[in-house]
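Hi Y.,

Following your request, here is the sequence exactly as I used it, all 255 residues.
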Amino acid sequence: MSDDIILEARGLTKEFKGFVAVKEVNLQVRRGTIHALIGPNGAGKSTVFNLLTKFLTPTRGQILYKGKDITRTKPAEIALMGLVRSFQISAVFPHLTVLENVRVALQRPLGTSFHFWKSESTLHSLHQRALELIEDVNLSPWAHHLAAELPYGRKRALEIATTLALDPEVMLLDEPLAGMGHEDIEGTAALIKRVAASRTVLMVEHNLSVVAHLSDTITVLRRGEILAEGPYDVVSRNAQVMEAYMGTGGGVGHA
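Below is the corresponding structure, written out as tokens. Let me know if you'd prefer a different format.
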């Protein structure tokens, strides 16, 4: 495997009682890029994502991370290796403040994440790093607000901040823009672009137009198989992609 390929799937297949949800998917995610996995409803993108993040076990096929076979590795173990799924480990506590949530996430690698009884002084060393992460996701004005009080888009930013606290080499985002209004989509997309500057991002998304300006590579799935792959300009002109999206009432135009 080439050094610039950080995550790879070979012949990835998942069957559920005779139903083939994912069939012979070959996927290569290049280091330092934003790679979007998209497709209309029922395309199999969430199943592929769950296979790659080890929430499902493949029926057949192989998954490699930095050249190492992780097909049978547990989700917690791959997270320690630097392959981190947002919302997998970055649980947000609604009745803690934004600052407290990020600080708890920073404790996880130390093995003290749930030591809420620790004194304030022992947590002071994490305080500055937590504030830096909060600033990175544009949440500084909300640092002392409860997570439950945040608007939807800000909650997603907090979830990204708690994921960043684990210092992932590859960040896996499961529909981070879902359910957002246009203003939140623009802000969150810009945030993803910014945090991707020093890491690799693989994200699942439904709408091709949303990732048009965000992704370096787009893989389009349909009925569990790869339909097309490449940059937006190539994928959006693919006749089969246009048919797949037009057939579901979607579109392939820019947002």
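The beta strands are 5-16, 19-30, 34-38, 60-65, 68-69, 83-85, 170-174, 200-205, 217-222, 225-230.

Thanks again,
Q.
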